[in-house]
Amino acid sequence: MSSLPIKASDSSPIIKSGSHLSRASSVIAFARREFRDAISSRWFLLYTVAFTVLAVAVSFMSLAGSGSHGFAGFGRTTAGLLNLIMLVVPLMALIAGAGSIAGERERGTLLYLLAQPISRTELLLGKYIGLAIALCCSMCVGFGLSAGVLAWRVGGVGISAFVMLVVFTCGLALAMLSVGILLSVISRRSGVATGLGLFVWLILVFLSDLGLMAGTILFKLRVQEVFVIGVMNPLQAFKMAVIVNMNASLDVLGPVGMYASQTFGGALPWILALVIGVWTIVPLVIALILFSKRGSV
Amino acid sequence: MIKASHVTKRFGNVVAVEDLSFELAESESIALWGSNGAGKTTLIRSLLGIFPVTGTVSIHGVDVRKHGKRARSFVGYVPQELAFHDDARLGSSIMFFANLRMVNRKEAAIALAKVGLQGHEKKRVRDLSGGMKQRLALAIALIADPPIIVLDEPTSNLDASGRGEVIDTLCQLRDEGKTLLFASHRPDEVLALGERVLVMEKGKLIRDITPTELWPTESRIQTMRLYLSMGTEESAAIALREAGHAVNLNGNGLCVSVPRNRKAEPVSVLARAEIEVRDFEILDEVQGDQE
Predict the structure, then answer these.
(1) What is the residue extent of each domain of chain B?
(2) Residue B187 and residue B166: Cα distance in Å, rounded?
(3) Handedness of CA A129, A130, A134, A140 (dihedral sign)
(4) Contact criterion met (CB below 8 Å) for B202 and B38
(5) How far apart are alpha carbons A135 and A129 in whole angstroms?
(6) d(CA B93, CA B108)
(7) β-pair type (B196-201, B29-33)
(8) Contact yes or no for A115 and B87 at CB 8 A
């Protein structure tokens, strides 16, 4: 019994099957397993390594280009990382979420899990939390090394914008993970869920911008309408939030950015954070409702 | 312990379980007997609250539809298709399920010891034999010592020696007072474990009898596969059942379980019913129709 050693904590009363089972215990059990599975999977390691290498590379390039110290180091790196994050993080989170429930369904393990004394809500929440922690840890590795390089070369001046970048990136990852989980719940096969995830990624990263540009020209949209439509895309909300935290103004984004800065002022970062929060909560709640109601396993 | 009342499960237009009612008393052992597609697995999943059904199911007095989680806490389940994460180690697999039931390491270790898997905790699931995986599923079902064990064809993937071990373990559990509900194709399994047999066909419960009523003999049971003229299978199954034989009818033909010294009887029954038997073969002794 070497791998199942009896610990001192095992002297606690054994909770038998007929007694009340803790909801938190099941969620934690699923979260721990999901986290362990995620960090040991090849695709996750690949994404983590790629993100880390690119983040560190951007840091070095920012330093080489700046020729100065302090804010320029972190500020340039934050700006440089912004586009990288908008490409890599949604893709990583959508794919992770898409494989979660559909993968279990395809392997036949979902049925076995649902035969255990757990609720569907606990299963889904546990998976979400486990994947969320794994994603945030993965990104923190990249950000951490990048920050280490910058701190080593230029010190800690201007690090607050970089910290906010990390916070908003984690928020973006959680939002995209929720969407991925929703796609996973509605798909019978993990391949279909992954395909849908890629399609959503394509829409958010490329097609929505193109659509907005075309719509603005075709329908002669006013600046406030362009802002509202643009900010509904969580990636645009993320981009604006990061830029606001760097510059305290969205003027660099042109008339729409100026409108947003002048109209919402200090409330703008909170509005943008709210958009990302809504993208996190709404798909997750829909996924929970659908998963609880669906009889299929 | 388990009470099912007018349970019906439909998948679109297909009725998988139709208006099925039965009761399973404490310490009783019931076998679900029927051919592939008879609805045994769907019934088991419905009882566990995995599928929404019409009708009512209660386990230990707890309504499965309203309090599925609590109802399932009284049940250990062994599925037909073993579904574990292949990369996980045996020790971490069982600890995951122990955590779901809020059971400590000591209890998990006892469950492993009960099925003879102690010492294998570091092995990866993918490296386990079919028999060991089956025993792992049984160990997981025994975590937290639930009063009811539900098994869906527990020996279907095992060789003769593995089958014997699992049946011995289940007999031991039955003798300890566990309530057993199991689906099976195998007469030997039903004879060894079952006190009652629920015979299912096309989603319906057609007989609720004892194993000795189904196979009224002390001798060993053999399964014969009968090759009949096209379109006569249904009437042949009815004739054989009326003559007291246990029949499985599926896409592979008609299989009938008979004592080894009465193999000619099914052929005679069908001859009297003017149903032509083109050929027959004797399957493995005490073998069901899954070959």
Answers:
(1) 2-211, 217-285
(2) 15
(3) positive
(4) yes
(5) 10
(6) 10
(7) parallel
(8) no
Q: What is the DSSP letter of A202?
A: H
Write the DSSP symbol of residue B276.
Answer: -
Question: Which string of DSSP letters, residue by residue, matches B129-192?
Answer: -HHHHHHHHHHHHHTT--SEEEEESTTTT--HHHHHHHHHHHHHHHHTT-EEEEEES-HHHHHH
**In the predicted model, what is the mean pLDDT of chain A?**
83
CA atoms within 13 A of residue B60's CA, in its CB half-sphere: 20
Q: How many residues does chain B have?
A: 291
Contact B76, B19 (CB under 8 A): no
d(CA A6, CA A3): 9
Chain centroid, CA B17 distance in Å:
16
- Which CATH number, 3.30.70.980, 3.40.1190.20, 3.20.20.70, 2.60.130.10, labels domain B217-285? 3.30.70.980
Segment holding B285, helix H or strand E: strand B277-285
What order do you get walking across the sheet with B2-11 strand by strand? Answer: B14-24, B2-11, B54-59, B62-63
Tens of pLDDT along A267-289?
Answer: 888 999 999 999 999 999 999 99
Is residue B124 less than 8 Å (CB to CB) from chain A?
Answer: no
For residue A234, pLDDT over 60 is answered with: yes
Question: Pairing relation of β-strands B2-11 and B14-24?
Answer: antiparallel
Tell me if B145 and A16 make a contact (CB, 8 A cut-off). Answer: yes
- Whether the CB of B85 is below 8 Å from some CB of chain A: the reply is yes
Q: Which of residues 92-111 of B touch A (CB under 8 A)?
A: 92, 94-97, 99-109
First to last CA, chain A: 35
User: How many contacts (CB atoms, under 8 Å) link A and B?
Assistant: 119
pLDDT, tens digit only, all 291 positions of chain B: 899 999 999 988 899 999 999 999 999 999 998 877 889 999 999 999 998 899 999 999 999 988 989 999 999 999 987 778 888 889 999 999 999 988 888 889 999 998 888 889 899 988 988 888 888 999 999 998 899 999 998 887 777 777 788 888 889 899 889 999 999 878 888 888 899 999 998 899 998 988 888 776 656 777 888 888 888 888 888 888 777 777 877 666 788 888 777 788 888 889 888 888 888 888 765 544 433
pLDDT at B285: 54
Length of chain A measured in residues: 297
**B87: nearest CA partner in chain A:** A37
CA B55 from centroid of its chain's CA atoms = 22
Average pLDDT, integer, range A171-184: 96
**Distance spanning both ends of chain B, measured CA to CA:** 34
> Do residues A61 and A81 touch, judged by C-beta distance below 8 A?
no
Amino acid at B244: G
**Å between A176 CA and nearest CA of chain B:** 26
Number of Cβ within 10 Å of residue A160's Cβ equals 12
B75, B146 Cβ separation under 8 angstroms: yes
* Structure tokens, A29: 């059990």
Residues A21-45: tens digit of each pLDDT: 567 888 999 999 999 989 888 888 8
Fold of B2-211: Rossmann fold (3.40.50)
